[in-house]
Amino acid sequence: SAASDVYKRQLGFKEYVNAESVYVGPNTRVCNHVDDPFAISDSEEARAAYQDSLGACGIQTRGYSVLAPGKPLDFLSQRISMDSDNPVRIENVGKIQKFLREASMIDCNPETRPITKELVIRVHTEQQEGLQASAEDMEFVSQAAGKLGWLVQTTHPSGAIAFCFLASNKSKCVPALVDAAKHMYRWLQGALWRCLEMVPGQDPGWHISTDSSWAGMHALNGDCSSTTGVFIRHGTLPVKWLFNRQKLTGTNFEEDPVLVELENGDLNQDGRDDYIALSSCEGEGIAAHDGTKIALHLHYVAEEVGVQTSLPLSLIHISEPTRPRLIS
Q1: What are phi and psi of 315, to 5 degrees?
Q2: pLDDT at site 307
Q3: What residues of the chain score a pLDDT lower than 50?
Q4: For position 328, what pLDDT does the model report?
Q5: Quick one: angle between helices 175-190 and 117-128, nearest 10?
């Protein structure tokens, strides 16, 4: 890419192996997304040298902002700020207000949860009845899912379940799903000032939590799939979170096993499918496995960028029945 060429060939920076689009040079590290770079220098002299090197390569900039108490800056549409006690905060207040205005819900009353069981049941019932929303409403839901997806990826991980629900059902949009999208906007009104926060020196090290919901939606809409949840922070700052469906499916068993087709439609020779999570314990193990892979990758990234870290990594919030399997 053009940015890679600038940093590696013209400036002599090195791209990190485990962190794409992050470059390191003399006393300066740069995260660059398209034409939006975020640089961290070890000193004012290093910052000035970095700026001079950009100018020497003929790279035109529109000025720059330096993060300082009372002087926030914007990066990838997020606001980064710090106060006199040095906590760093990342928030999306302006972005959320823009989303609320675009949805004509800037003055809506706030909700405390991004989705409710009642809405999930209503959506499933209306889909079973064959109801369908208008083209205008389908576009409203599609836009709401996209906007919530951005916020879930950046500053509002607690909206992950609502995002997955909207995104997975928008192709079968029903009137109740429109209500779910509006409910999500009302939740954003209440979550407007939520942010990610890093307090230097407080609660240091990795904190890795994993969990699983085994066929958690089955009682609400008949969905037998299980989900994985992973939440990782370094110190007080959340750095990675994940909520997705597991490839295994949890099912209830009668006297005879229920045959479940694999993704490619094949079954084993004996007619049984071995790709079924038979218990919540197995679901927890899958979640722990996924969380461990993500945590190890972040450990390698931290080592490369010079963030203090160490092995072994410890997982928390794992159910007790899962522990013997993890140890073995």
Answers
A1: -95, 145
A2: 83
A3: 249-274, 323-328
A4: 35
A5: 160
All residues at 6 or more sequence positions from 11 whose CB lies less than 8 Å from its CB, including other chains? 23, 25, 53, 54, 57
143, β-bridge pairs: none
- Torsional class of 202: left (φ above 0), alpha (ψ -120 to 50), beta (otherwise): beta
Residue 223: both structure tokens together: 């969905």
CB 224 within 8 A of CB 132: no
With a threshold of 0.85, does the pTM exceed it? Answer: no
d(CA 8, CA 52): 16
User: What are the φ and ψ backbone dihedral angles of 184, each rounded to 5 degrees?
Assistant: -60, -40
Sheet with 315-316: strands ordered across: 276-277, 237-250, 225-234, 206-213, 315-316
Type of residue at 45: E
